[in-house]
Amino acid sequence: MKKIPLLFLSLLLVCSGLIQAEDSVSLSADNPAIRYVGLFTEDFKSSWTGSQIDVRFQGPSASVRLEVQAGKQVAFAVVVDGVAQLLIADAETKIYPVAEGLDPEVMHELILFRRSEAYFGVVKFEGFEFPAGTTVEKSADPSRRMLVIGDSITCGYGNMADDVSEGNTLKNENAWMAYAPLTARHFDADLVMLCWSGRGLYRNRSIQGDTEGTLPKLFDAILPGQASPLWDHSAYVPDVVVINLGTNDSTDRNGEKPTLSKEDYVNCYQDFIRRIRVTAPESTVFLTLGPMNNAPITLDWLEAAAAPFENVHPFLYKPLNGAEDIGGHYHPSLIKHEKMSEELIREINAQGLWQE
Description:
By secondary structure, the chain is an alpha+beta fold. The chain is built from 8 helices and 17 strands.
């Protein structure tokens, strides 16, 4: 067999993003073996809930290199062969062991999934590190795609809280176990999540500046809160779009805000659907709401929003019912998220989509 010159082999490894030293294999963030799901900048920064990075590898262990925004901490689900563990990354640390003691003869799947929401900070992904001799390959791309847009409910706010009085924390907000990812995994679909606590469709929960930074106004942002760069929506065309917005719109903050107008809400919804349909004209859209208190919004408001469109389906999640449904600050618990996922799966199946 003809020998490959050492210099030429080294150049091949560097150009592919794979650098093998005596004791490690490093994958740079631009390596084609790494799969991204969600919104990332050209230099691999992200902040939306559910931003996901996948790789398959044959080896005994793995580490990830991350750069976290100064003064911030961000929580991830590290999922190895289907088993999820919590990783809290901070600005002080760069390299995090994420898998150890694995069978080196077996191909393993590693998923890094952001489980805390955007306001916790921006993270730059810088690559993976493996022991020498590790081989890597890209995870398969599912044929199905979902886009889910929502507020704190969709983010999984406080779904692991031990008491209703708990606010949202890095440890008790677990988007990996929220209704949207549960549904996506049921259907083996990719998922992009655009969600942020306190935000609404027409207006936010806040009193001052409540129409600034609503989800339709963040819809184009790769890093919400920053005017640029903008997301190329044509790069991810969803088959199914689920919107769960209105809980924050509906509140009047005990009379400090005017009662929400049906006309304002419905008109804003219709404008948003038209925007989505520009790049996803064949998508099936679900206008959902719940399971928290949403008065004065009712199902007929969603039906009015859906009326001008084909293949747009409104429904309400069943309200919270009993202590087992309630997490932090009266948000859905893990148990309730499972129930919501079951409801959403039924609605998707009812439209003849993705039959199992």
